[in-house]
Amino acid sequence: MSLWTSLEPASATVDPGGSTTVRLRLRNTGDVVDEYRFEAVGPLAPWARVEPQVLRLYPGTTGSVDIAFAPPRTPDATAGPNPYAVRITPTEHPEATTVPEGNLTITPFTEVRAELVPPTVKGRFRGRPKLAVDNLGNTKLTASVSGSDNGDQLSYDIYPSNVQIEPGRAAFVKTTLKPRQIIWFGSKESRPYTLAVQRSGVDPMDVEGTYIQKGFLPRWLATFLGIFMALALTFVLLWIAYKPQVRSAATEKLQEAGISTLPPSSPTASPPMPSTPTVAPTTPPAAAPTQAAGGAAAGAGGGGSEDDKETKAPERTAATAVQELAAEEPDKKHICYRAFVKGEGWTEAVCDGETAGTVGEETPLKSLNIAVSGTKGTASAAFVHDPESTNGQGHYIAPWSGAADGIDNYIGSTKKDAPNLLGFTINVDNGGGAVCQNAHVRNAAWLGLGCDKPGEGEGFIFGGTLDNNLWLEAVKFTV
């Protein structure tokens, strides 16, 4: 058996995000009818499609198939020449496999994203934001970073000031902002600034941030010191103005008579101290007559006093909701949950497959509160955004947290600067049943129902995404 093949063209070029087609011609030079199967192999195989995948040829006849390449516009589509191959397997003689090779050149593209973490920093003498620079292109990125602001109010210490980032990677640039003038007294001032990512031959990419400069001493202290100094000065002036003048009458008479000295007088006893004045005791005023018993009863029946404090209703958590269901249906399993939405706080507790969170509003979840009944407890862990990620994925922030039936279990954090939830792992106590989840991720639909496998060790189910650029928007649970 023999086979002749030819790639037309042998070398092709394609843009990331686009597509191109290469034709593979082959001739059956043998003496039997044969059927050939085609399979793309090599690094470009995931982006290659062969049509048709099976071709039947009679002896001496020629046929062709099309190989379509569609590399994505991502860092995985490496710029430059990329070899590829197609495996041709004859049905009649599978041992006589042929692998023609070709070359596909992927054109380079550049895409850069920069973000300040955090965008607003506060301080009296300095601020230390970080600039995250992501290379989303398919070629190495070389850039310099510089800072500027209106009025030259800040100085910038940037390290490193020049970065080289491989495709699909990120770099963090540490920046120290220092105000040129210190605010000794007074309120804080906002100082906008810009960090520019400069690449050769293109306009710089500006990332804007804000430095909130605080006063060295609070304003109220400056006011207090000013008032104290004014009162002290007033007291001194009053003392000088009204200081008593004491003169001896005998000295004045001698001066009138022209005598300048006075014979010494005999010593006398010290004058007695004045006695302490006594205060006549006073009788306290009589108490006002008390209100009649009937009037007091009427007042009590009229409601509480205006000074009574308003009693706040207790928070309805997931445990509160699941305890109510367990009381109504003690022979069934239930799971209740609620979500902490950024900028909105905790949602209402829902149960058994209802939606907690928002869908399509670009509002990430920060934390989940889960409680179960009839499953012997539950355990879970949070997978969150990682600002220092080098592989484009988040990370787990803590070990598993668990709770028994009817007890609140929390994952994630509700702090203001807490990272967004990307995903979670969850299970119920081995032997207590199975837990199922469905998660809605940013820029995507519901990911689909997934359940753990009880009885297989410490089984669990993961919901959400590993992608550092996405986040959870809503969840559903059932047991």
Automatic annotation (TrEMBL):
Pfam families: ChW. Residues 264-275 have a biased composition (Pro residues). InterPro entries: ChW. Residues 259-318 are annotated as: Disordered. The keyword Aminoacyl-tRNA synthetase does not apply. Keywords: Hydrolase, Membrane, Transmembrane, Transmembrane helix. The keyword Transmembrane helix applies. GO terms for molecular function: hydrolase activity. The chain crosses the membrane at residues 220-242. This is Hydrolase.
